[in-house]
Amino acid sequence: MKKRKTGPRPGPALDLRTGHAKSVRMAINEDTTETNPDIAQTARTLIGQYGDDAAVIATLRAAELAATGNVDGLFFWDSVIELIEDMAEGKVAQDA
To answer: For residues 83 and 39, is the Cβ–Cβ distance under 8 A?
Structure first.
């Protein structure tokens, strides 16, 4: 059995207002969803399952990953959150 390290885990600085990682937050555009279609698919799936609460569910997942220092996973979920918010505001079509 491996000995587990204790102490604080490294992770990105969080914006206390939004709960999003400051260092990995990015703008969603067509290039992003074309580069990683999983972002758009995940956003659509969460909206389909949770409706108006989709961003909250995605934020909970992002927080779990931030707590473990998983920057790549946090980047993905922050992108999903931003796309969900853009879809809710009508900035991006939900079929994007």
So the answer is: yes
Decide: helix, strand or coil at residue 20: coil
Domain range summary for the chain, segments of one domain joined by +: 30-88
Distance in angstroms (rounded) separating the CA atoms of residues 84 and 70? 21
> What pLDDT does 61 receive?
96
Q: Quick count: other Cβ atoms within 10 Å of Cβ 61?
A: 17
Q: Name the DSSP class of 3.
A: P
Identify the three-state secondary structure at position 31: helix
Question: Which residue, chain included where needed, has tokens 């969900």?
Answer: 84
Please state, for a pLDDT cut of 90, what percent of the chain lies above it: 51
Is the pTM higher than 0.90?
no
Helix, strand or coil, per DSSP, at residue 24: coil
